[in-house]
Amino acid sequence: MKTIKISNSDILSLLDAEASTFPKYATQILNLANQNAQGTRPSVVGQMSDLIQEFPGSKLKEWEEWYLNKHPESLSIAANKVFEMVANFKDVMTQIDKEMVEKWVKDLVILKTFIGLKFQEAILKSVAAEFNQPYRLATPEEESQGIDGVIANKPISIKPTSYEMKKSLSEKIEAPIVFYEKLKDGIKITFDESII
Fold first, then answer.
1. pLDDT digits (tens, 9 = 90+) for 113-152
2. How far apart are CA 107 and CA 145, in angstroms?
3. DSSP letter, residue 41
4. Residue 44 to residues 41, 47, 72, 82, 87: CA-CA distances in angstroms?
């Protein structure tokens, strides 16, 4: 069995293409700006995986001409969206001082870590409140059985919604499961009302 590795520069060479060069850190800033501005979403520039399949040619220059003929305004629209976000970054950069960085680091290391690691208790407490029942976190022995907490003396397991899709898991959990999904603005909790 033979394995071949092709470097990025080899790929460019094999495809007769040339990479652009940018100042250090510029692409990181542009990628972040694009993420926020959503400048290169399919709704703006087209679905690239479909377009490249439609493309009848084989050369970079042909691709450029073909793409620009099909989407003449897309690059300009995308660039404007990203540039506007870069301008927003420039504005906020002048407001960032050492004190703000210290506050951000504390928020990340202290607050977000605590919330990220303790959110199961918040889920347990919320579900218990729905039933107006007491709750407690699982003991280490209960945890070894897949139990995350107890509501009204009934064991409860807390799992992400993706757990449902992993049918091949060998883990057997006898307790009712409360499912959660992390959202941008919180946690969505789903459970059977007969769990208690």
1. 787 668 888 899 999 999 999 999 999 899 888 899 999 9
2. 34
3. S
4. 5, 9, 11, 12, 20
| Spans of all domains in the chain | 21-93, 98-190
Burial 95-112 (b: 16+ CB within 10 A, else e): eeeeeeeeeeeeeeeeee
pLDDT tens for each residue of 12-49: 787 878 888 899 999 999 999 999 999 999 999 999 99
Q: Which residue has the tokens 């990479």?
A: 19
Rounded Cα gap, residues 149 and 164, in angstroms: 19
Is the Cβ–Cβ distance between 48 and 39 less than 8 Å?
A: no
**Residue 143 tokens, joined:** 């945890």
Q: Which long-range contacts (CB under 8 A, 24 or more apart) does 177-182 make?
A: 178/123, 178/124, 178/127, 180/119, 180/123
The two three-digit tokens of residue 114, written as one number: 């605590």
Sheet of 177-183, strand order: 135-137, 149-151, 154-160, 177-183, 186-190
> What single string gives the DSSP state of each residue in 119-183?
HHHHHHHHHHHHHT--EEEPPHHHHTTT--EEETTEEEEEEETHHHH-TT------S-EEEEEEE
Can you count the helices (H) and strands (E) in the chain?
A: 10, 5
Question: CB of 179 within 8 A of CB of 160?
Answer: yes
Kindly list the distances between the CA atom of residue 112 and the CA atoms of 48, 55, 104, 180, 189, in Å, as whole numbers in the listed order. Answer: 36, 46, 10, 18, 19
